[in-house]
Amino acid sequence: MRSVVLDAGGLALSALLCEPAGPPRALVVAVHGGGMRAGYFHGRARSELSLLRLGARLGCTVLAVDRPGYGRSAAALPEGLPLAEQTPLLRAALADFAGRHPVGAGHFVLAHSFGGKLALALAAHAGDGAGLLGVDISGCGRHYAPGAEDEVRHRRPASRRRHWGPLRLYPPGTFRQSAGTVAPMPVREAAELAGWPGLFDRLAPRVRVPVRFTFAEHELWWRRQEPDLAALAAAFTAAPRVLLEHQPGAGHNISLGWAARAYHLRALAFLEECLPPGA
Predict the structure, then answer these.
(1) What is the model's pLDDT at position 127?
(2) In angstroms, how far is the first alpha carbon of the chain from the final one?
(3) How much is the average pLDDT of 125-148?
(4) Taking 80 as the threshold, does the pLDDT of residue 226 lie above it?
C-alpha cells in the first residue's frame, strides 16, 4: 500500500493505492464518507480488515481516494464542494489514473455514507460504455431516520452512537489508530445533507449498472424498514440489478469494525458478479 496523487483536472487529490502481484482484474475505487479520509478503507487496528490489502490479494487494484475537500485538496478547498462539483473531479482523477495504470475490465465503485452519494452521482452521469462495472454502497440510504433527519435539518452535531454504534463492534485500538482518518466535514458538503432525498430521486433512475446497498445492524442514520427499502430499490428503474443486504455485528462505520472483512468479501463477491465472462 502506498500514497499517490491524482490529477483531477488541475486539482491534486491524494489517494491510497494497493496493487496485485500481476495484471489487475479490475480497479476498485473506494470512496469515503463525510468526516473521514481514504484511510477509512485501510483500518490499521487489524491488518486483515483492510479493503486495500484484501482486494489486492484477490487480484484487483484498489484505489481509495480522498474526496475533494479532504486530504491534499483540503487547503485548496477549505469549504469543500457540493456533489455536482465533486463528480467531474472524481471522473477526471479516475481518467488520470487509468491513463497511467492498467485497470483490467473496468472500475467498480465501493463507497461509504456521503461517498455513496458521490458514487451514485458518478454512476448517473457515466452513461453506457464508460467502464463502470457496478456500485457497492454502505451507510447510505434514501431517507434519513427520524432522529437523524432532525439533526440534519437543524445542522446539529450527530451523536457518537449514530456515527459508530456500540464500541464493542470495533477492535481495540481502532480509535487511536484512526486519528488520522477522521477529518472535519467541509461546510459546502454539509449544507447539502438535508436535500439528499430529493437528489437521490433524481439520480437513481439514471443509474444503468448493478447496485448493491448494505445496511449495518446498528445503522442509525437511515430508514431501513421493508417499505423504505422496497421504495429505495424501486427508484432504480434502469439498473439491471439492485441488491439490498444487512451486515450483522456492524455499526455505521462498517469498514473499521470487526465486520469489515465479511462486508468487504461480500462486496468483492458482488464485483465478481459484475465482471464480464472471462475477466
Answers:
(1) 64
(2) 24
(3) 88
(4) yes
Kindly give the residue spans of alpha helices, DSSP state H, lying in the chain: 51-57, 83-98, 114-124, 146-153, 160-164, 174-177, 187-190, 196-203, 226-234, 260-274
Residue 138 backbone phi and psi in degrees, to 5 = -125, 155
Fold of 2-274: Rossmann fold (3.40.50)
Per-residue model confidence (pLDDT) at position 129? 47
What is the rounded CA–CA span in Å between residue 272 and residue 25? 10
**Among positive and negative, which fits the CA dihedral 262, 266, 271, 273?**
positive
| Cell numbers that stand for 65 in this block | 481516494
Q: Rounded mean pLDDT of 52-62?
A: 98
pTM of the full structure: 0.95
DSSP label at 236? -
Question: Which one, of 184, 183, 192, lies nearest residue 121 by Cα?
Answer: 192
Q: Residue 152 has which C-alpha cell?
A: 440534519
- Would you list the domain boundaries of the chain? 2-274
